[in-house]
Amino acid sequence: MNYNIIFFSPDYLIKIIVMTTTTDTSGRLCNQIIRNLAVSFIAKKHNLNVTYSNYYLISSQLGIKLFNMGTQIYSDMKELNNSNFFDIYNTDNITYNLNPNNSYFQTKEIISMIYDYLHSNIIKSNIIEKNKFKERYNNNNDLFIHIRLGDIAHFNPGVDYYLKAIKYIKELTNFDHIYITSDTLTHDIIKKIIEEYPQANLIDYNEVETIQFGSTCKNIILSHGSFSAIIGILSFYSNVYYPKIEKDKIWYGVDMFSIKGWTEL
Predict the structure, then answer these.
(1) Please, how many CA atoms are within 13 Å of residue 80, restricted to the half-sphere of its CB?
(2) Separation between Cα atoms, residue 2 and residue 99, nearest integer Å
């Protein structure tokens, strides 16, 4: 947590000011990307001084620029959440720091704002330039499958979804290579896909490399959650497919997948 400590004389009282920060927060990398972007939009509008979680990975490695030149730090704090995001963003002036760490900012309206920003010419070009697999953009006919399992494997849409999606894409456009990534590469779902498609390649990159490689593939089958959503959002030249939402398997912000041009299967 970041603090400015101001001493008041002659009483020697200490006032602790908690700056606007996203570093004291839950959620993995892609939850942090979405939250950081939401805060960055407001910080730029209102010149707020902000410290961001995983700033180096997000800005320097992925190329997602976050506003970090703000100078304003206030003594008061206000919670930033899904409900008041646009009220605060659109107000003429604010006189408080923000605490965004209890919300995920995955509403349709905020995700749309994030999508438009990431697809703007300058930001898109920077993301592409930072991608270590950038020569693959618009230069392959491969299929990438992200399968979210791990601690929420029970929410996964199931192997039938992936097999159906593969078959659909094969009949529609075909593909050259299949790449599969997951947080649990030994899971039965993956074994069953390999049985049907033994030519499939399992890849085990780190988080940044997985996003970068996946987003360059021509066809992408998403799973669920923010990691899948960010792969899809950063896939500038891809055909993106995602699972139909099942009410008993909702654990994430479903509006992350409300992207025009994506195909629900």
Answers:
(1) 29
(2) 12
Residues 209 and 246 in one domain: yes
Residue 192 pLDDT exceeds 80 = yes
Distance spanning both ends of the chain, measured CA to CA: 42
Q: What is the number of structural domains in the chain?
A: 2
| CATH assignment at residue 228 | 3.40.50.11350
Q: 143 forms bridges with which residues in the sheet?
A: 178, 219
Enumerate the H helices of the chain as residue ranges: 29-46, 55, 85-90, 108-118, 121-130, 159-172, 188-196, 207-214, 226-233
| pLDDT score of 189 | 97
Asked whether the predicted pLDDT for residue 150 surpasses 90, the reply is no
Q: Judge whether residue 147 has pLDDT over 60.
A: yes
Indicate the residue type of 128: I
Question: Is 148 in the same domain as 106?
Answer: no
